Amino acid sequence: MPVFFLLLLFLLLRFGLLAQLDPSALGRAARFAPMYGLERLAYWVYQLSTAALFLLSFFCPVRAEGWPLIPGALLYLSGLGLCALSLRDFARPAPQGFCSGGVYRLSRNPMYLSYFLCFLGCALLSRSLILLGVVLLFQVSAHWVILAEERWCREQFGDAYRAYQKEVRRYLSLPRRKTPPQPKC
């Protein structure tokens, strides 16, 4: 079976679930922030690496044996799960206009993280070094796209987004326990 079928399932989830939850969210998810300088180059690398990933997926079979099977399957399935949760929360932005609840309490960019997990899982399942290289190129360029999006969010949402940035890391934050106030002696 070619990796394409795994990516097809990913695409059905990515676009189908969001369309079911909130069709207007499809438009929000498709918009990219304004890009400047090297960000424009990163945007095109992002787009081309995404196209290359899907094109290569037709020629890379899933190999259901050996050590990469379990980690690859776990990464892919974790990516699908995180993608579903991200889409659910993205479809219901907070009153301030950006997503900060659900999985967005753990990552400012859970959708991009879910893409990386799915694509990395596919690369492991196919044992393709070329596909792995394209996935890494995708992720490096996605980082630059994320930086542009975060700049745009600071401009649009101001101090609320800056406070959110201080509280939640770009890729992964562990929930912080609130320490109870210490009694004064």
From TrEMBL:
It comes from the Bacteria. The keyword Transmembrane helix applies. Pfam families: PEMT. One of its GO terms (cellular component) is endomembrane system. Its main location: membrane. The chain crosses the membrane at residues 43-62, 69-87, 112-138. InterPro entries: Metal_cation-efflux_comp, Phopholipid_MeTrfase. It is found in: Endomembrane system. Keywords: Membrane, Transmembrane, Transmembrane helix. It is a multi-pass membrane protein. This is Isoprenylcysteine carboxylmethyltransferase family protein. It comes from Candidatus Intestinimonas pullistercoris.
